[in-house]
Amino acid sequence: MIMLKRSSFVQLAHAIQDDRPVQGLTHCFYRYPARFSPLFARAAIEAFTNEGDTVFDPFIGGGTTIVEASALGRRGVGTDISSLAIFLTRVKTTLLSDDDITQIKKWLTNVDRWLNLRNDALRPTEWILSGYQRNISSRTTWPTRKATELAIGELWRLGNVQQDFVRCALLKTAQWALDCRTRIPTAKEFRHRLVVHSEEMLDGLRELRREVRRFTRPVEPLCINRSLIGIEDDERAKVFFPPKLVVCSPPYPGIHVLYHRWQVNGRRETPAPFWIANSLDGNGASHYTFGDRGQRGLEAYFEQAGKVYRSLRKVVDQQTTLVQLVAFSSPSWQLQRFLQILSEAGFSEVNYSEISNSDDGRLWRSIPHRKFYADQRGHIPASKEVLLIHKIS
Predict the structure, then answer these.
(1) Beta bridge mates, 325
(2) Residue 389's closest CA among 246, 289, 231, 252?
(3) What are the phi and psi torsion angles at 175 (to 5°)?
(4) 13, 355 in Cβ contact below 8 A?
(5) Which residues pair with 282 in a beta bridge?
(6) Average pLDDT of 69-84?
(7) pLDDT at 117 over 90
(8) What whole-number distance in Å separates Cα of residue 177 and Cα of residue 193?
(9) What pLDDT does residue 352 have?
(10) Which residues pair with residue 269 across a beta bridge?
(11) Do you find a cis peptide bond into 251, omega within 30 degrees of 0?
């Protein structure tokens, strides 16, 4: 049993149940699907680690864990098979200098002139031919697409880290304009929102920088674009393992989460975020979710999960705590199968009666501000997540 102070129990339980919108630091740089609360990541990090420890997130997603680890003086290490996730996390944890910020603000003063739709845009031919602009050239969406092209065409005026920041601001603004919107904003609204978003993001970056600089030996996070399978042989990560804490939210069994696409007008999918981030995709939805959610028995999902957790077992030790938030389309059988996979990989569950709110001895929560598409048998259970804590057997 992992001994925690009562205050840690209370903080962790409250953080998990907190339903306020995501905010603070650089967490609002992008609305990544199925992200968990920064308060949960912070509470877990504070409960199970000390300053200087390594915190590992094998499904980095929007980078919430890595941002919080940096702000708390821990070394954040993360992996993800999505190049978009790695791009976002890198930008969210890159501490820009005052000169970088000055150059970005200077660039933003020209947005109205540069992003005028009367200007000629340099079309990204290779991206277009590869389908990355699919469904964003309609009568209502083309102004957003062209404004984005015009902005990307002016990035040469900035340094590399400055360019990445502006690309992230474009991602945030294009997502605001296109993803699940019933009314697509005008180009004028897009330009205005780009500046507003950029200013908000710079404020968040300054806040993160202040937090990181509280520590005498701040450490840079490590983000690797790869699967967790085989991580034990990756020389880039070996030096930081074993981690003191693994905190994550893996792909959910049987639940449809669109990690890699936007839905234009709420229906038509586009891989445009990869084009804006200058990151390659080329994979279907099942690539990011351990397999097709419609497969009978979710055999592919659990086979992939088994490989993932067996690799994870090889880079942790007796001091490591594995903390996860997981949702299930049909928890009546999927939870036990998931726990079986963890057990077979060498992990044992740890239950805390102090934070339990259900008969099974675990802490469950309703998922706020999130829309899932689950299979017909389990669309109601999919609205809940469970906290799972494990140590190696």
Answers:
(1) 387
(2) 246
(3) -65, -45
(4) yes
(5) none
(6) 95
(7) yes
(8) 9
(9) 80
(10) 263
(11) no
Contact 315, 78 (CB under 8 A): no
Q: Is the separation of the CB atoms in 382 and 374 below 8 Å? A: yes
Mean pLDDT of 289-295: 74
Mean pLDDT of the chain: 90
Q: What's the mean pLDDT in 250-260?
A: 85
Pairing state between β 347-349 and 384-392:
antiparallel
What CA–CA distance (Å, rounded) separates 272 from 330? 32
Examine the pLDDT at 145 and tell me if it is beyond 80: yes
Q: Which residues pair with 384 in a beta bridge?
A: 366
**pTM higher than 0.90 for the full model?**
yes
Please state the domain extents for the chain. 1-393
How long, in residues, is the chain?
A: 393
Cis peptide before 143 (omega within 30 of 0): no
What the block records as the tokens of 286 is 């099942």
Q: Report d(CA 313, CA 325) in Å as an integer.
A: 18
Report the topology of domain 1-393. Answer: Rossmann fold (3.40.50)
Of 5-19, 214-228, 280-294, the poorest mean pLDDT is in 280-294
Amino acid identity of residue 131, one-letter, is: G
Looking at the DSSP bridge assignments, the partners of residue 80 are: 225
Encoding tokens for residue 77?
Answer: 């290490």
Q: List the structure tokens of 120.
A: 């000629």
Phi then psi for residue 162, to 5 deg, are -70, -40
In the block, tokens 């890159």 appear at 94
- By the 10 Å C-beta count (0-12 exposed, 13-18 middle, 19+ buried), 118 is classed as exposed
Residue 378's pLDDT band (cuts 50, 70, 90): very low
C-alpha closest to that of 290 among 118, 1, 58, 134: 58
Distance CA 339, CA 171 (A): 37
Helix 187-212 with 142-153: angle, nearest 10 deg: 50
